[in-house]
Amino acid sequence: xxxxxxxxxxxxxxxxxxxxxxxxxxxxxxxxxxxxxxxxxxxxxxxxxxxxxxxxxxxxxxxxxxxxxxxxxxxxxxxxxxxxxxxxxxxxxxxxxxxxxxxxxxxxxxxxxxxxxxxxxxxxxxxxxxxxxxxxxxxxxxxxxxxxxxxxxxxxxxxxxxxxxxxxxxxxxxxxxxxxxxxxxxxxxxxxxxxxxxxxxxxxxxxxx
Length: 209
Prior knowledge:
Elements: H1 2-5, E1 13-14, E2 69-73, E3 78-85, E4 92-93, E5 102-105, E6 117-121, E7 144-148, E8 153-165, H2 166-176, E9 184-193, E10 198-208
Parallel strand pairs: 3-5, 6-9
Antiparallel strand pairs: 1-4, 2-3, 2-7, 5-6, 7-8, 8-10, 9-10
């Protein structure tokens, strides 16, 4: 496992992180999240394996997977299935273990919702490529992201792409993943590999057009 960690980038998103008092609204923001059932999800009959350590890219089965959504990001060549995932008992959201899949946090807003963040996470592979979000750092404001569901294609326009340290992400998680405010798409992966760990996250925020 340690050898594998030296070769891949992982997108580990702390859904609940920073400490705070009960008076701090961001400290208990997750209590306002509507809980949706994970299974059965149309087009996805079993819970997807999740891990902060991805499967070897050559073993990816993404091309054979049908999720509730498909994600297309023309700027960086993404055309991938999106599968439903959930946070674990520690409120950490690991992406799908298969690096060719993107994972939609099914306890948050759904893509196309009029309110709240629809959160999508996925792996970046450090050496050799093969991660769904390898090139997310090349996204720019104004780029489009398409999410296709069973009945429609939702088009989003990227408003911001930020590289955020893990500490800053923890501090601002309540705002980044907020389930109030206008509907938006938040796409997250890891960045800033220092040879042993990922020090940052790339966070792209997009709004429907």
